[in-house]
Write a structure and sequence with these properties.
Layout lengths: L3 E4 L8 H11 L4 E3 L6 E5 L3 H11 L8 E3 L15 H10 L4 E6 L6 H4 L4 E5 L4 H9 L4 E2 L14 H8 L5 E4 L10 E4 L6 E4 L5 H5 L6 E2 L27 E6 L2 H17 L4 E5 L11 E4 L6 H17 L4 E5 L7 H11 L4 E3 L4
Parallel strand pairs: 1-8, 2-8, 4-6, 5-9, 10-11, 12-15, 12-16, 13-14, 13-15
Antiparallel strand pairs: 2-3, 3-7, 4-7, 5-6, 9-10
Helix pairs in contact: 1-5, 9-10
The structure holds threonylcarbamoyladenylate (TXA) and magnesium ion.
Length: 352
């Protein structure tokens, strides 16, 4: 398949390329597009054949349901059984934006899109290119993140090209994304609204709108006996090729511990890497040391995390150590992704 790459700035909303991208979707094709979180791999959400094409392009198991992206509120009710008061409140507070809601699906949504579930995930992105594209596509775009299965979600068109060239009809290049981690997912079909995947919209933010919000117990823990409620969370998703370990503790001891490991590994001929922060990156002796951002600015870390994981793959680093992050606010989403990438390998120096 020939993949057309098109650059679209936020100011070119009515461009003929967006119309063309929309037409591709309506004819059953695939288009990768930017959103504020990560790039999506879009197909027609109401066409069962498109869902199958998406799974094939990603090499993704087809029991992993897709998020349906809409661009305006009036398009919600046709695809769900009911729009409750709580759903309306959350939509008012956070849409368009990085929040996905799980709702009971209507008959309009094929089971191919929902991975056989009676529920559907819905999100209204705030990215202007995404909105114009969804509109041109007819209103309902099913899109997982635009990475090949098992790789970090793409935060720039460059990574979409790496993963999906020749597998999709078009890639809309809107530059770097704003947030860098996938949307917060909240299940609205349970007794209490339940966070299934942490993201930019935090529990504290949700609790300002709804009285009480629960968290899926499997979200931050390594306990694999319990199945996560978002089927996609069970796969070892954000895994770098190198062996990643997180080291938690005070700055001084963490630097010392990681450097000790690095010296030992280098003697064995192993290529080592460190995920550090702006304040510490110069202190490490790894072969490849990268700052993921500034601890005072969590968004800078969210934005860089996947890029750095991809960099370590490219440089074929064998063993990677990462500093640990505070799990309040956006830090919870950062640690959730980092822990998954590490297969939950974390060393707590305070406990040694
Ligand atoms: O920010 C995002 O959400 C990005 C952009 C492109 O919008 N999309 C994204 O899609 O991250 P994906 O497919 O990589 O992740 C969707 C997650 C998966 O873990 C999936 O299992 C879960 O949402 N999910 C989808 N439908 C669900 C449902 N009906 N019930 C429970 N979980 C669901
Ligand atoms: Mg994904």
């Amino acid at each position: 398949m020939k993949t057309q790459i098109v650059q679209v700035g936020q100011q070119h909303m009515e461009s003929e390329w967006i119309q063309k991208a929309g037409a591709i979707i309506q004819m059953g094709g695939l288009v990768a597009f930017p959103t504020e979180t990560v790039y999506g791999l879009g197909g027609d959400a109401l066409n069962p054949a498109s869902a199958r094409e998406i799974y094939a392009a990603k090499d993704r198991p087809s029991d992993n349901p897709l998020i349906v992206h809409i661009y305006r509120m009036e398009d919600l009710s046709p695809i769900v059984k009911e729009v409750s008061e709580s759903v309306r409140k959350l939509a008012e507070a956070f849409w368009p934006g990085p929040l996905t809601l799980i709702l009971q699906k209507s008959e309009l949504v094929p089971y191919e899109t929902t991975g056989g579930l009676d529920t559907v995930a819905v999100r209204m992105p705030s990215h202007k290119v995404a909105q114009a594209f969804i509109k041109a596509a007819g209103g309902y775009v099913a899109a997982p993140s635009a990475n090949r299965s098992g790789r970090p979600s793409p935060t720039s068109a460059k990574y979409v090209i790496e993963d999906l060239m020749g597998r999709v009809d078009m890639i809309l290049d809107g530059g770097d994304v704003e947030i860098g981690l996938e949307s917060t997912i909240v299940d609205m079909t349970t007794e209490e609204p339940t966070i299934l995947r942490p993201g930019f919209v935090t529990r504290e933010m949700l609790e300002k709108v709804l009285q009480s919000v629960e968290e899926d117990q499997t979200m931050m823990s390594a306990d694999s006996k319990q199945a996560p409620k978002a089927p996609g969370m069970k796969y070892r998703h954000y895994a770098p090729k190198g062996d990643l370990t997180i080291v938690d503790g005070e700055e001084g001891p963490v630097v010392e511990y990681i450097n000790e490991q690095i010296v030992r590994l280098q003697k064995e001929g192993c290529k080592t890497g460190v995920i550090a922060t702006d304040a510490t990156v110069s202190l490490y002796r790894g072969d490849v040391c990268k700052s993921v951002g500034n601890r005072e600015d969590e968004l800078s870390i969210a934005r860089e995390l996947y890029r750095i994981l991809r960099d370590f793959d490219e440089k074929e680093v064998g063993v990677i150590y990462s500093e640990s992050f505070d799990t309040s606010g956006l830090g919870q989403a950062i640690m959730n992704r980092l822990l998954k990438a590490a297969g939950h390998k974390i060393i707590h120096l305070n406990n040694i």
